[in-house]
Specification:
Structural class: alpha+beta
Number of strands: 9
Helix content: 25-40%
Radius of gyration: 19 Å
Order of helices and strands: EHEEEEHHHHHEEEHEH
Mean pLDDT: 90
Strand content: 15-25%
CATH architecture: 2-Layer Sandwich
Number of helices: 8
Low-confidence stretches: none
CATH topology: Thymidylate Synthase, Chain A
Shape: globular
Number of domains: 1
């Protein structure tokens, strides 16, 4: 497990350190065996280039109190990141939504074909975060109906010391292999202690060059929004983030140290 815990470091410094760790410690995600057929996959699409990855990456960081501070530290792809965050918290289970069109790395013709089955507005993604944040509450689980972000806020309002405030993005339907994209995020654990709201973010898979800084931004913005939605005031505490596979394409290894230098510059 790679760990770089130090609350004295800024978010941008920790992002820089993650690039350095991947460059130094990353290994190709391959299995050399004549008995297995293993494919290099990215976004559930087969690719020629294997991933360079570090598994079980963990870090923690003090969360900024304001959006402005967070933007300065995370340098997200704006305005897409904030516009997409607002889309996520809209209260509507949108699919496909609108902001995917503005993601800087979205190749419209190719990605619409690969991930939506075409260009038409009625073509859907296999999932969206809006659907996972706001699922229809008349959906029936094993015993009870589904809940949404509003229910998580109600739980924290009822008992701010609750240890049960976990919001799952990965749903049971994702267990079945269908050859479709599934959520990278597994879920978020919100925990209030010493009058501070902390969040633990579990993410199974993260592309360091395209998603990492945006994922941090979107998660801390969620913590800020949850905090501001509670009936009692709390400061923001720490973000604890566990990443199952932090990776890039192996052909991008030569870029990682330059990326680290960029993040170290103010």
């Amino acid at each position: 497990m790679e760990s770089y815990k130090s609350n004295k470091m800024t978010i941008s410094q920790k992002i820089a350190q993650a690039f350095s760790i991947l460059h130094t410690s990353g290994v190709a995600s391959e299995i050399q065996s004549p008995y297995m057929e293993c494919k290099n996959m990215w976004q559930s699409v087969e690719v020629d280039d294997p991933m360079l990855e570090v598994c079980n990456m963990f870090f923690d960081v003090q969360m900024p109190e304001t959006k402005e501070e967070l933007v300065q530290e995370c340098r997200p792809d704006m305005p897409w990141a904030e516009d997409h965050f607002q889309e996520r918290i809209s209260g509507k289970p949108l699919n496909p939504g609108q902001q995917y069109k503005n993601w800087p790395y979205y190749a419209h013709n190719e990605d619409n074909r690969r991930f939506r089955g075409g260009e038409d507005e009625d073509k859907l993604f296999s999932h969206t975060y809006m659907e996972r944040y706001w699922p229809p509450t008349d959906l029936k689980g094993i015993r009870y109906n589904y809940g949404d972000l509003k229910n998580l806020i109600e739980r924290l309002n009822k008992n701010p010391l609750s240890r049960q405030a976990y919001f799952a993005v990965w749903h049971p339907e994702d267990q079945v292999e269908r050859g479709e994209r599934v959520p990278c995020s597994l879920g978020y654990h919100f925990l209030i202690r010493q009058m501070k709201l902390n969040i633990t973010y579990h993410i199974r898979s993260c592309d360091i060059r395209r998603h990492f800084h945006n994922d941090i931004y979107l998660t801390i913005r969620l913590a800020q929004w949850i905090r501001d939605s509670l009936k009692y005031y709390f400061e923001l505490g720490n973000l604890y983030m566990w990443i199952g596979s932090l990776h890039c394409f192996s052909t991008e290894k030569s870029m990682l140290l330059k990326d680290a230098d960029k993040w170290n510059k103010k």
